[in-house]
Design brief:
Layout: E1 3-6, E2 10-14, E3 21-24, E4 36-38, E5 45-49, E6 52-57, E7 62-65, E8 71-72, E9 78-80, E10 84-88, E11 91-92, E12 101-102, E13 107-109, E14 115-118, E15 121-122, E16 131-132, E17 138-139, E18 150-154, E19 156-158, H1 164-201
Antiparallel strand pairs: 1-2, 2-3, 4-19, 5-18, 6-7, 6-10, 6-15, 8-9, 9-10, 10-11, 12-13, 13-14, 16-17
Length: 202
Amino acid sequence: MMSVLSNGGQKILGDGIGSPIVTIDSGKTLFQPGTIEATDRSLDVAINGDGFFNITGEDGTTYLTRNGGFDLDTEGYLVLPGVGRVQGSSGYIKASGTSVEIASDGTVSSPTGAMLGKIRVTSPADYGTLERTESGLFTFSGAAPVSANYLVIQNSLEKSNVNMNIELTNLVAAQRAFQSCSSALTTVDSLNRKAAQTLAAI
């Protein structure tokens, strides 16, 4: 009988005869910060340090994300396209235009210096309690505490934190392991055929 055992995001499949087969059940999320790159958009912001932006989705759920590629909706509110409005420390942030100034603490101001709001950045004490959604956003049960160890950088976006050198090395290792298993199965199949032919000749 085929058995399925949980093993930290993996599934171990076995038939009780040979070695088990390990398959991926869910991906592992790496919370290390990515590289911050400059852009030419004043509504692009990145977090240097701990924390997440808080976005209110259309369903009313608060989503956490490091994606700071913001825009304005038809009413002039700061939004994350396709998700919802950006939460401020005292409500949603309504900007007068795309030429806003965003300070390192997240304060959003108009070109004339009028304060429009402050982007809310929160940081759960344990990132392991975050639940990832299919869209790559995170949800958190309860209210995450406001982060104190961060800087908001305007005209910038945080890129992926995936190390391609490591991932390519892992891919090559996986391919070689697959080739080894394939060769072993071919050998076993050949031995089984010879054994069957020998038994048939007896």
